[in-house]
Design brief:
It contains 10 helices and 10 strands. The protein has 294 residues and is α/β, with parallel strands linked by helices. The mean pLDDT is 87.
Length: 294
């Protein structure tokens, strides 16, 4: 067994396609299939369900895949640690972020890139629960999530601030007088919302329910990009976070304020407290404190 076989297995999970996994790993599809069969032979287990195309992982394959991710994270962490011992910060910062919040990750990673020019970045859009889980199993280095369920016995964190919200709309399709709209008027609009289960969505629903309102969204999506597409097309408006970078000029899009509009739980930057913890996570967490003035 070697580390490349584990990378091939993880690539197959990411793409769900043998050809695309091979392309991702810069090898041919026959080579990928052969190396995965060699891994199965060595473990004496069938890991992959095969038909004319990829059909998923066996139960044993799912369990081995979880270990493969842990081993690969440890492998990458070892090289990052060795670089840190040489006074360098080399590797990839793996960061999970809730899809909607008053946090602009681009500003943060631009600051990191200036301090650590050899660092690269991987950003994943996840729920707060998924971020905590992936930090726990070392699949992420840092997370930006809501702090109401973060256990300080297992995680280091600091508060970034509250997430304030407003109504985002396209000026070509909607016109509103003044600078503020009531929640009652917002409830009458065709609304797009992030998918149920997300912390942000729960908070927006609570803001409506506390006023006796139950709007039915015309569109739900787990993709911020798809919500923006729908807003730009005039299909809907959406309750979106302020201070997230969306205030920057985007043609025809504008915000209107809502009264007392914020997500109740504070937003924070979170890092796993227990070892193994990568040098990249530690350095970027400390740099974040400096950048945020903590």
């Amino acid at each position: 067994m070697d580390i490349k076989q584990l990378k091939f297995l993880i690539a197959l999970e990411q793409t769900r396609h043998f050809g695309q996994a091979a392309a991702l790993c810069y090898i041919t599809q026959p080579t990928l299939s052969m190396r995965l069969r060699n891994l199965e032979d060595e473990l004496d287990l069938v890991l992959v369900k095969r038909g004319q195309r990829f059909e998923g992982f066996t139960q044993a394959g799912e369990r081995v895949l979880a270990w493969a991710k842990t081993l690969l994270a440890a492998h990458d962490g070892l090289f990052a640690e060795a670089a840190a011992c040489r006074g360098q910060l080399v590797g990839q910062l793996r960061m999970g972020l809730v899809p909607l919040s008053s946090f602009n990750p681009v500003n943060y990673i631009q600051g990191l890139a200036k301090s650590f020019p050899e660092l690269t970045f991987n950003l994943s859009s996840l729920s707060s629960d998924q971020i905590i889980e992936n930090l726990s199993n070392n699949q992420l280095d840092l997370g930006v999530c809501y702090l109401d369920h973060v256990n300080q016995n297992y995680f280091d964190f600091f508060e970034i601030g509250a997430t304030r919200v407003g109504l985002l709309y396209d000026k070509r399709h909607y016109h509103f007088d003044g600078t503020e709209m009531s929640w009652e008027d917002a409830a009458e609009l065709p609304l797009g919302m992030i998918t149920n289960g997300m912390h942000y969505r729960k908070s927006v629903d609570l803001s409506f329910r506390s006023r006796g309102l139950s709007p039915q969204p015309i569109l739900e999506s787990d993709s911020t990009y798809q919500l923006l597409q729908a807003i730009h097309a005039g299909f809907c408006c959406a309750i979106m976070p302020l201070d997230s970078g969306l205030e920057a000029p985007i043609e025809n899009l504008a915000f209107i304020n809502l009264p007392d509009a914020s997500v109740l739980a504070p937003l924070g930057l979170v890092m796993r407290k227990t070892e193994p913890r990568s040098a990249i996570a530690e350095k970027c967490f400390e740099e974040a404190k400096r950048l945020f003035g903590v």
